[in-house]
Inverse folding.
């Protein structure tokens, strides 16, 4: 640990190309975009419940989808 602290003490602080709050803003935009993609797939299994039930009946399995 002494070596690490010695190295960190000798390293100059680099100047960032943008203010620090911009990194947070970029992360927020990326997470919002990923959240929108995730949200767009909501309830996608129930859109094709008739097809899933037909497949389950044809292949001898019980349907795991509740026919709401």
């Amino acid at each position: 640990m002494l070596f690490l602290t010695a190295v960190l003490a000798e390293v100059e602080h680099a100047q960032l190309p943008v203010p620090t709050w911009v990194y947070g803003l970029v992360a927020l935009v990326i997470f919002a975009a990923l959240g929108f993609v995730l949200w767009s797939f909501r309830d996608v299994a129930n859109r094709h419940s008739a097809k899933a039930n037909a497949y389950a009946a044809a292949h001898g399995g019980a349907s795991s989808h509740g026919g709401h």
